[in-house]
């Protein structure tokens, strides 16, 4: 499976737990852990849809680009008042 499969599953409203179980997310998480990855960054705007379900499967910290962008926008919005 590829991350494109994950995007298409999100757009088709496949339940997040089903995505983790059936679309290679669990295997991807296992690979990251085997490689001693320190954290996982989900950079696609589709991925927050299943981050919580994937977090239940891994001990690795996960980061979402959305969290970063939201923080940046909150800081920038002060300039527009």
From TrEMBL:
One of its GO terms (molecular function) is racemase and epimerase activity, acting on amino acids and derivatives. Gene3D superfamilies: 3.40.50.1860. It comes from the Bacteria. This is Glutamate racemase.
